[in-house]
Amino acid sequence: MFDEEHPLADAQLQTLAVRAGQHRTAEGEQGEPIFTTSSYVFDNAAAAAARFSGDEPGNVYSRYTNPTVRCFEERLAAMEGGEACVATASGMAAILSCCLSLLKSGDHVLASRSIFGTTSMLLNKYLAKFGIEVTQVNLTDYDAWQQALKPNTKMLFAETPSNPLNDIADISKLAELAHGNDSLLVIDNCFCSPALQQPLSLGADLVIHSATKFLDGQGRVLGGAVVGPEKLCEEVLGFIRTCGPTMSAFNAWVFLKGLETLKLRMQAHSDNAMALARWLQQHPKVEQVYYCGLPEHPNHELATKQQKAYGGVLSFKVVGDREQAWKVIDACRLMSLTANLGDAKTTIVHPATTTHGRLSDEQKLEAGISENLIRIAVGLEDVDDLKQDLERGLSQL
Ligand SMILES: *Cc1c(COP(=O)(O)O)cnc(C)c1O
After folding, report:
1. Could you tell me if the CB of 217 is within 6 A of ligand 1?
2. Is 75 in the pocket of ligand 1 (CB under 6 A)?
3. Is-cis flag, bond preceding 164, omega within 30?
4. Domain limits of the chain?
5. For residue 10, how far is its CA from the centre of ligand 1 (angstroms)?
6. Can you spell out the DSSP letters for 315-354?
7. pLDDT in tens, the chain (397 residues)
8. Ligand 1 contacts CB of residue 32 (under 6 A)
9. Å from CA of 265 to ligand 1 middle
């Protein structure tokens, strides 16, 4: 990312989070400016021609480049350990851009079954319309991944930890499978963020982000990003510039501020989630807790090896059925009943009737989405208050 002379050449994550990407203007500003401009002015006709032809680097139009967006891209690339980054209007725009720029009709995509519902919809409904084949397999069943590989498999796509059960996939193992088949491995790193996991260093070819979640961290704006080698990002960038799902300068600035505190927040989210998971685990009205930080979780060892902490999302089953789960949710006065995650404010949701409501009963059973399951994206409140909030409903069961 940086040459040897660069002051950030050897910098660690938290320094990059605060410093990478900033190019001060002649005004000498300490904070990163927001460039709210759609286009840029040239000194003369020859300079305009040189910019347009690409002979001279510089800004032309904000669908192509914007200094605030550029700053966000450089900062996130540095934090993920990638050569390049392309910012997008949302997480879904990042996934769409990645697929449409790198795949063509006749290609096959192999994805884990537990990916974000809208990603599944994008692959199965929209990409299928353009002759792209899709197969989905169990995230942690490496034999199934292996067996589903085909000569035309161009891309493997996975999310780890999974939502909402916190299954963990071995990224190096998936990379090995992908590369043995000349396929690309794309990891949606939304749940961990680069503060907890850097998939590129484990062999992934591209990292996807919904910046809307932990990168912002305060539930303000939508955005996304694709991070990876220059060569692949060039393709994605070409798509963005032509098709237009660009990130706005204002949103890029919000994400820049979010990145500065990302590591501190991820540690706090993880600490809170761990404390809440342990408390839930010993609660008589709780049947089971799914959090990769718990030693009882089937993928705990891998999570410890692959991640710096266990993240902010957990789920649990209450004793009972839908009625009991809804009762606990409805009794909450602090936690927000919303499907979003990665916010300072804790959110609680009933996956079976919301985020995973589109799945058939059989698919739900297969994915472990039962009627008594509740997902919590643990925020930054004092954890004792969160416990009290849940106890209000749990004590009614
Ligand atoms: C939210 C989310 C997305 C989609 O991101 P948007 O910014 O909402 O478009 C993709 N992947 C995961 C894992 C998500 O949680």
Report:
1. no
2. no
3. yes
4. 13-260, 263-394
5. 31
6. EEEESS-HHHHHHHHHH-SSSEE-S--SSSS-EEE-GGGT
7. 788 888 898 999 999 999 999 999 999 999 999 999 999 999 999 999 999 998 999 999 999 999 999 999 999 999 999 999 999 999 999 999 999 999 999 999 999 998 998 999 999 999 999 999 999 999 999 999 999 999 999 999 999 999 999 999 999 999 999 999 999 999 999 999 999 999 999 999 999 999 999 999 999 999 999 999 999 999 999 999 999 999 999 999 999 999 999 999 999 999 999 999 999 999 999 999 999 999 999 999 999 999 999 999 999 999 999 999 999 999 999 999 998 999 999 999 999 999 888 888 988 888 889 999 999 999 999 999 999 999 999 999 9
8. no
9. 19
Indicate if ligand 1 lies below 6 Å from the C-beta of 158: no
- Identify whether the C-beta of residue 228 lies closer than 8 Å to the C-beta of residue 200: yes
Q: Is the CB of 324 under 6 A from ligand 1?
A: no
Determine the residue of 98, 114, 118 to mutate for testing ligand 1's pocket, defined as the one with the most ligand atoms within 8 A of the Cβ atom: 118
Under CATH, which architecture does the 263-394 domain have?
Alpha-Beta Complex (3.90)
Comparing CA positions, the residue from 95, 73, 78 lying closest to residue 252 is: 73
Fold for the domain defined by 13-260: Aspartate Aminotransferase; domain 2 (3.40.640)
Q: Is 208 helix (H, G, I), strand (E, B) or coil?
A: strand
Atom 7 of ligand 1, residue of closest alpha carbon:
91
State which H helix or E strand residue 386 sits in: helix 383-394
The protein residue with its alpha carbon nearest to ligand 1, atom 12, reads 116
CB 387 within 8 A of CB 351: no
